[in-house]
C-alpha cells in the first residue's frame, strides 16, 4: 500500500469515528456489513475503538438484529455504486441508522443509481460517505415536495452535509420528516360525529362532496386547521358518510384512502381498520354511558299527609285525654257535655281553641300536660311541612352499570346496534329493550317514559344542559362507563407528511389542546350549564339554597281546609235554622 492510500484510509477511519462520536448520545452497537471488502487498514480503527460490533455478510439486511435499548449503526462498505442498486430490494428498518461508504464514487456513474434508491433512502436515516478525488464527502437525500405535482420528488441532487476534513460539527442523520407541504392541497374526508364534526346542511350532502370551511365545524376541523398552519398545506375537505355514535366498521371511505383520492379521514373515527391505513395517534376519547331520567316526587300539599308520619299517636293521646277528663268529671259528679269536650280538646290539639277550664287540681294538671303535647304536635307538623315544601328528597341515583341492570327500568336501544358488548348481563338486559329508530328517538323515549338508553358523553352533556328545568338536571348518567372509545384520524400509508403529523398530534394531546378544542366544540357554556344543573339537582335535594321560602301554591291545602270548614259550618247553620223554624 502506498502512502496516499494509507492517508486516505486513515482519513476515512477518523471520519467514521468522528461521525459516530458527534452524532450518538450513547455508545451505539455497530453492524459491519460486507466484512470481506473492508481493508485491514480501515478495520483496525474499529478494533482499537470501544464500540461493540456485529459482523453481517448481507448488505443492509439487519432485520435479524433486535435490541431492547440503545442505538444501532449499520456501516456498509462498497466499492462502487452498482452494488448500491441492491438497496431497492432490501428492507430498511426505521430505528436503525445506516452509513454507506462508497469508495469509488463517480458522479457521472452514480447519480442515476442514487436517484433510483433516493425515494427509499430519503425517508430513512441513510447517509453516504463518498470519495471525491482525495477527500470524502458526507451526503444524504432529503425528502422534498414538488410544488407542481404536490408529490415527493426523487430527482433532486443529494444534500452535502459536510466533508471529512472539516472540523465543524454537523448532524450526520438529519430529520427526514416533511415540515413544509409547499401550500399543496391536503385532501381530507370528513365524517359526521358530534362534537368532532358537524355540518350546517347535512341533508344536502353526498359522498365526496367538496366542503367549504364554513360548512363544517367541530374539534377535528380545528385540529386540521392547526396542522395546515404548521405544515403549510391547504385543506381540501370532502364529505364521507359514517354511522354516527357507533364504532362500527365502515369500509367504503377506506377505498378513497387506498386509491389516493383522500390523504386523511377525520370526524371522530377509530382504529378499527388494521394495517389497511395508518393512524394519527389517539387525540380524543369518548365514553359510552347509561343515561336515565332523574325523577323525584313532586312537592305539593297533597303529599304532605303521607310525609307527616306518626300523627296517630297524637290522636290516641287526644282520645285518652277526653276519656280521663270524663272519668274525673264522673268521680267529681260534674255534668259535662261529651260533644263539647271533644270539640274543645280537638281545637286545643290543632291550636284553634282553648280547653275546657279545669275546676279541680287534677283537671288543671291534666290540662297542662295535654297542652304540652299540643305544643309538640304544632312544632312537629310545622317542621314536617317546612322540610316537605322546601327540601326535596334526592332522586334515585344509579352509580354503576350493575345498578342500572338491577333498577327495573326499561332500556330503549336501537335494534341493529344494541349488542355492541359481549357481556352476558348486558345482553340479557338489552334483550328486554324497546326498539327505537335512532339515537335521538331513544333519548326522547327514555326521557318521556322514564327509561334508560345508551349515549356518548359528548352528546349527553348537550342533552343534560338542554333538558334542565329550573337549573336542575332531569337527566343523569352512571359514573361507570360501559365502553371507552378512542378516536384517531386515518392516514393513507404513503402520505409524505405522516411522521410529522403523528408527532404533532402527540404534542397537541399532551399539551391539552385537543381536549380544549373538544370542550369548545361541545360548548364551554353548555358544559358549564350541564355541570351546574347536575350539582343543583343534588344540592337542592339537601339544603335550602334560595332561602327555603314556602310559596302560596304550596300552602294551598290550608285554604282548601278553610273552605271545607266554612262550607260545613254553613250547612250546620242552615240545618239549625230549619230546625228552629219547624219547632216554632
TrEMBL record:
Membrane-topology annotation of the record: Multi-pass membrane protein
Where does it primarily localize? membrane
Q: Which domain of life is it from?
A: Eukaryota
- Tell me the compartments it is located in: Cell membrane
Q: Which UniProt keywords apply?
A: Cell membrane, Glycoprotein, Membrane, Receptor, Transmembrane, Transmembrane helix
TM ranges are 311-331, 368-392, 559-579
**InterPro entries this protein is in?**
Insect_Ionotropic_Sensory_Rcpt (IPR052192)
Stored PANTHER family:
IONOTROPIC RECEPTOR 20A-RELATED, IONOTROPIC RECEPTOR 60A
Could you identify this protein by its name?
A: Uncharacterized protein
Amino acid at each position: 500500500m502506498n502512502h496516499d492510500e494509507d492517508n486516505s484510509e486513515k482519513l476515512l477511519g477518523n471520519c467514521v469515528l468522528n461521525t459516530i462520536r458527534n452524532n450518538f448520545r450513547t455508545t451505539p452497537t455497530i453492524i459491519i456489513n460486507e466484512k470481506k471488502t473492508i481493508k485491514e487498514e480501515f478495520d483496525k480503527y474499529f478494533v482499537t475503538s470501544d464500540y461493540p460490533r456485529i459482523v453481517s455478510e448481507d448488505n443492509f439486511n439487519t432485520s435479524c438484529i433486535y435490541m431492547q435499548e440503545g442505538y444501532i449503526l449499520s456501516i456498509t462498505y462498497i466499492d462502487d455504486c452498482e452494488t448500491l442498486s441492491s438497496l431497492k430490494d432490501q428492507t430498511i428498518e426505521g430505528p436503525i441508522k445506516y452509513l454507506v461508504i462508497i469508495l469509488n464514487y463517480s458522479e457521472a456513474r452514480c447519480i442515476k443509481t442514487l436517484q433510483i434508491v433516493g425515494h427509499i433512502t430519503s425517508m430513512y436515516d441513510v447517509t453516504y460517505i463518498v470519495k471525491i478525488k482525495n477527500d470524502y464527502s458526507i451526503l444524504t437525500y432529503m425528502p422534498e415536495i414538488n410544488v407542481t405535482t404536490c408529490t415527493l420528488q426523487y430527482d433532486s441532487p443529494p444534500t452535502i452535509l459536510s466533508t471529512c476534513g472539516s472540523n465543524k460539527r454537523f448532524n450526520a442523520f438529519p430529520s427526514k420528516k416533511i415540515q413544509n407541504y409547499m401550500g399543496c392541497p391536503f385532501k381530507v374526508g370528513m365524517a359526521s360525529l358530534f362534537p368532532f364534526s358537524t355540518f350546517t346542511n347535512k341533508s344536502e350532502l353526498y359522498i365526496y362532496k367538496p366542503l367549504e370551511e364554513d360548512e363544517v365545524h367541530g374539534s377535528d376541523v380545528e385540529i386540521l386547521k392547526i396542522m395546515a398552519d404548521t405544515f403549510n398545506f391547504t385543506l381540501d375537505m370532502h364529505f364521507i358518510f359514517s354511522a354516527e355514535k357507533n364504532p362500527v366498521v365502515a369500509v367504503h371511505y377506506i377505498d378513497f384512502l387506498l386509491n389516493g383520492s383522500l390523504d386523511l379521514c377525520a370526524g371522530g373515527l377509530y382504529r378499527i381498520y388494521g394495517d389497511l391505513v395508518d393512524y394519527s395517534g389517539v387525540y380524543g376519547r369518548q365514553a359510552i354511558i347509561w343515561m336515565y331520567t332523574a325523577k323525584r316526587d313532586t312537592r305539593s300539599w297533597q303529599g304532605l299527609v303521607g310525609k307527616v308520619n306518626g300523627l296517630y299517636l297524637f290522636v290516641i293521646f287526644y282520645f285518652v285525654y277526653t276519656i280521663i277528663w270524663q272519668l274525673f268529671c264522673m268521680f267529681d259528679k260534674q255534668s259535662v257535655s261529651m260533644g263539647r269536650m271533644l270539640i274543645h280538646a280537638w281545637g286545643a290539639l290543632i291550636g284553634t281553641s282553648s280547653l275546657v277550664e279545669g275546676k279541680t287540681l287534677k283537671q288543671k294538671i291534666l290540662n297542662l300536660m295535654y297542652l304540652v303535647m299540643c305544643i309538640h304536635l304544632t312544632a312537629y307538623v310545622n317542621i314536617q311541612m317546612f322540610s316537605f315544601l322546601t327540601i326535596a328528597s334526592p332522586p334515585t341515583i344509579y352509580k354503576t352499570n350493575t345498578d342500572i341492570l338491577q333498577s327495573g327500568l326499561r332500556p330503549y336501544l336501537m335494534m341493529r346496534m344494541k349488542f355492541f358488548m359481549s357481556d352476558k348481563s348486558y345482553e340479557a338486559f338489552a334483550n328486554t329493550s324497546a326498539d327505537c329508530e335512532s339515537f335521538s328517538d331513544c333519548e326522547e323515549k327514555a326521557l318521556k317514559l322514564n327509561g334508560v338508553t345508551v349515549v356518548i358523553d359528548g352528546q349527553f352533556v348537550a342533552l343534560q344542559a338542554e333538558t334542565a328545568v329550573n337549573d336542575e338536571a332531569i337527566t343523569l348518567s352512571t359514573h361507570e362507563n360501559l365502553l371507552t372509545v378512542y378516536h384517531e384520524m386515518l392516514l393513507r400509508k404513503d402520505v409524505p407528511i405522516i411522521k410529522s403529523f403523528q408527532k404533532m398530534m402527540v404534542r397537541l394531546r399532551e399539551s391539552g389542546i385537543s381536549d380544549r378544542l373538544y370542550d369548545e366544540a361541545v360548548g364551554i357554556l353548555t358544559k358549564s350549564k350541564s355541570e351546574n344543573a347536575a350539582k343543583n339537582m343534588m344540592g337542592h335535594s339537601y339544603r335550602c339554597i334560595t332561602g327555603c321560602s314556602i310559596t302560596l301554591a304550596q300552602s294551598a291545602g290550608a285554604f282548601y281546609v278553610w273552605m271545607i270548614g266554612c262550607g260545613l259550618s254553613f250547612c250546620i247553620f242552615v240545618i239549625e235554622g230549619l230546625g228552629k223554624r219547624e219547632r216554632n
